[in-house]
Amino acid sequence: MALDRSDIPNIADLARLAIAENDIPQYQQELSNILELVEQMNAVNTDDVQPLAHPTDAVQRLRADEVTETNQREKYMQCAPAKEEGLFLVPKVIE
Amino acid sequence: MEWEVVIGLEIHAQLATKSKIFSGSSTAFGAEPNTQASLVDLGLPGVLPVFNKEALNMAVQFGCAIDAEIGKVSVFDRKNYFYPDSPKGYQTTQLHHPIVGMGHIDITLEDGPDKGVTKRINVTRAHLEEDAGKSLHEDFQGMSGIDLNRAGTPLIEIVSEPEMRNAKEAVAYFKKMHSIVTYLGICDGDLSQGSMRCDCNVSLRPKGQEEFGTRTEIKNVNSFRFVEQAINCEIERQRDILEDGGSIVQETRLYDPNKNETRSMRSKEVANDYRYFPCPDLLPVVIDDDYIEAIRSHLPELPDQKKQRFMDDHKLSEYDASVLTASRELAAYFETVAEKCGDYKLATNWVMGELSAAMNKSDVSIQACPISAEVLGAMLLRLKDETINGKGAKTLFQSLWEKQSDDVDALIESLGIKQVQDSGAIESIVDEVLANNQAQVDNYVAAAEDKRGKMLGFFVGQVMKASKGSANPGMVNSVLKTKLDEKC
């Protein structure tokens, strides 16, 4: 499946990536190539193959329900560009 | 045209674990912002989630309680979306392989034309996922504040089949789920703190039509009353549109309880594209039959079982049993009262009667009830052993409610409501009353025998009054009858 040129800004928007207008044809080509690869794989008959959620055969290990973290707010907030009253500040998210 | 309403609910219940689903941060409610947000919860690079064993246990308990298939292999997926209260850029959830598969619950309507009717509602699935943080939109220099304490709190999302046909059924379903998760102790059920939230999917179709109409989803309704109101006003909105020949737009809406209306939430026309894929940081969760059976065999008594036991063992009516088992706290209170006084019938009458009325009047919940179950039980024991009579019990109840004391026996003394059981004392009051009411005595003697029963009531009233309500009414009755019959 080849992507239209108009799909690219949409995909970039979902990924929150800013892309330059003149880079669009290149992304269109590369992403289409990836989809083409997937299409090749789709052609393989997988009727008797169990879907694989993870490449290793291991299963999830479980953690005991204990509080092991302490308050490190001041440290963790050091890298935040804007903060107030213990809150991270972000551009306003509602209209 | 006659319309049929179709409702399905998605209920989010916060699991009552001590720590978060994928990190060792505390889940306690009400802490200072961001003091319970670890590197994992903040979505910083280079960290790995580790799944909380207790969250798994609780989800499996829930599955067993609704008689569901349990997913022996469940898989976590990433649901990708951008919102600042979800700093990872995705929510870890379960899409294709949830921990709980198809199950069911039975609901009973509390009022309306179908009161008492039981209906089975199938539960499509329930999956584990993480809660998001909170955005605060007050003015912080024109920005939004983010508190990530809640981010990573374990949730189960319980998805019903679209099998409810009116708002009352939806409320009954939500209440039943609330009762099941609180009986299990896997959720504190505190709706005011958001421990349980409900999304309501509502659509209409012409009666008899098989195909569903276009639905809307009302997000995050957080009280039983609002579920009913929100659904009813959405039904009305959709009916108006359809009857005017319009069509329903599939969208998420918000309920505004102040205006009693729903309104569209997203102005964006682009449909959400969540790009789900299996989370590479988490491996499949594999459990076996032994594990599931061990949980199943340790389930606590559930509301339906308790209700049946109250009916079978203690002869409660179905209605009384339903009301008394609806909440775990009320059921526990009632059982303590009943055991303490040794009389389930008496306990039922007082908990459903006097106590419920007092709680309604003062608008307090059973948790905040000023009379403890032990004290009410002790009071009813004194009623049962005839230390006090029914009138004295009401006086005593009022004093206990006003917290004058918790000592039932001392209050009986100080209120002077101890029942007079001394037959000599009762006889002398009776003699006095008869002497003071000669005219009524003459009427009694002259009356036909079948009329006398009713006339006796007057004398009983007078004697009770003369004894300030403290005489044993049974004894008063029999002494009066003997003395009056002697005169006939």
How would the blueprint of this fold be written?
The complex is a heterodimer of chains A (95) and B (488).
Chain A: H1 7-14, H2 24-42, E1 62-63, H3 73-76, E2 83-84, E3 87-91
Antiparallel strand pairs in A: 2-3
Chain B: E1 3-14, E2 51-52, H1 53-65, E3 73-74, E4 77-80, E5 90-93, E6 103-108, E7 118-130, E8 134-140, E9 143-147, E10 154-160, H2 167-184, E11 196-206, E12 216-221, H3 224-243, E13 252-256, E14 261-264, E15 277-278, E16 285-286, H4 289-297, H5 303-314, H6 318-325, H7 328-341, H8 344-362, H9 373-384, H10 390-401, H11 408-415, H12 423-436, H13 438-446, H14 449-466, H15 473-487
Parallel strand pairs in B: 12-13
Antiparallel strand pairs in B: 1-10, 1-11, 3-16, 4-5, 4-15, 6-7, 7-10, 8-9, 11-12, 13-14
Write out key terms for the chains shown.
heterodimer; A: 95 residues; alpha+beta; 3 helices; B: 488 residues; 3 domains; eight-stranded mixed beta sheet; three-stranded antiparallel beta sheet; 41% helix; 19% strand; elongated
Explain what you see.
The complex is a heterodimer of chains A (95) and B (488). With 95 residues, chain A is of the alpha+beta class. Chain A has helices at residues 7-14, 24-42, 73-76; strands at 62-63, 83-84, 87-91. Chain A has a two-stranded antiparallel ribbon with strand order 2-3. The model of chain A has no long low-confidence stretch (mean pLDDT 90). Chain B is 41% helix and 19% strand. An 8-stranded mixed β-sheet of chain B has the order 6-7-10-1-11-12-13-14. Chain B has a 3-stranded antiparallel β-sheet with strand order 5-4-15, with no helix packed on it. In chain B, a hairpin with a 4-residue loop joins β13 and β14. The chains are: A alpha+beta (95), B alpha+beta (488). The interface between A and B is large, with 36 and 53 residues. β3 (87-91) of chain A pairs antiparallel with β9 of chain B.
